[in-house]
Design goal:
This protein has two domains: about 150 residues, Alpha-Beta Plaits (2-Layer Sandwich); about 80 residues, Double Stranded RNA Binding Domain. The chain is an alpha+beta fold and about 300 residues long. It is about 35% helix and about 25% strand.
């Protein structure tokens, strides 16, 4: 068609070429997106957990900043969010928080965020205004739709109840409504204290525990696959996946894909799609993490 347009200079043919090109672009974008979200659980809702690293108030403040970032991101996608459990920091911020994110492909998007996030800034909590580096761990779990996917053995689960610590309704801090479930064989813990009743908190804790056990099974499967491929498998927190530098310059850089931006304000306000898409494309193509330098 391009050759015909060049030869004839026909306006109608040119318009048809534009329509065909636009349609192809839409089809290509749709198929490309489908490849990025081709995982078994990518279409599901997600459970997002943020845990402050070492560093006291600076770390708990960073965890709360990340929570705001992801809530704003979910808002941009019109995803519904609900805080299931949170532990407040001693002076400010959050020690940990778990949020349910409900929306199409919520897990598919958010799985790109799993890992350690590093913040470099002048600490507002340091009277000497020194630069501080702090870390937070982001975990993302797929919501389990069918209880048969992960069968819980209650002989292997310890159930503890305690009084809720956060702000809430009339029963908070007055009754043992909060519930903590510990899976004894693995040591995995799930708890909920934001609901009004012990029954509701137990249901939420079961939901989180089941998702954590499913994620563990997926990680074991992935680790086995990587071993068969001859790739190095490292457990634990591992290295950071992204650095958010607010001083002495402004830069957010993903260390896996090398994608970066100097618009730190937009990123912390939830503008994360470009970072997520870059990592999902890396995962879809099987590319190894970038060996980007990060000396700060």
């Amino acid at each position: 068609m391009v050759e015909l347009v060049a030869e004839s200079d026909d306006p109608e043919l040119t318009a048809e070429l534009d329509r065909e090109a636009t349609a192809l672009e839409i089809d290509f974008s749709r198929e490309r997106t489908a490849l990025l979200f081709s995982g078994e659980y990518d279409d599901r809702n997600a459970l997002l957990t943020i845990s402050a690293g070492a560093g006291g108030t600076e770390a708990t403040d960073w965890a709360e900043m990340l929570l705001r970032m992801y809530l704003r991101w979910a808002e941009r996608h019109r995803f519904r969010t609900e805080v299931l459990d949170q532990q407040e920091g001693e002076q400010a911020g959050l020690k940990s928080v778990t949020v349910a994110v409900d929306g199409r492909r919520a897990y598919g998007w958010l799985r790109a965020e799993r890992g350690v996030h590093r913040l470099v800034r002048i600490s507002p909590y340091d009277a000497q205004k020194r630069r501080q580096t702090t870390f937070a761990l982001v975990e993302v779990l797929p919501e389990v739709e069918d209880a048969a996917e992960i069968e819980l053995d209650w002989d292997e689960i310890r159930v503890d109840t305690f009084r809720s610590q956060g702000a809430g309704g009339q029963h908070v801090n007055k009754t043992d409504s909060a519930v903590r479930l510990t899976h004894l064989p693995t040591g995995i813990v799930a708890q909920s204290q934001n609901e009004r009743s012990q029954t509701q908190n137990k249901e939420t804790a079961i939901k989180v525990l089941t998702a954590r056990l499913l994620e563990r099974a997926l990680e074991e499967r992935e680790a086995e696959t990587r071993k068969l491929r001859g790739e190095h498998v490292e457990a634990g927190w591992g290295n950071q996946i992204r650095s958010y530098v607010l001083h002495p310059y402004q830069m957010v850089k993903d260390l896996r894909t090398s994608y970066e931006t100097s618009n730190t304000g937009a990123v912390l306000d939830g503008d994360l799609d470009a970072f997520m898409a870059a990592e999902l494309e890396r995962l879809a193509t099987g590319a190894l993490p970038s060996a980007a330098d990060d000396d700060e």
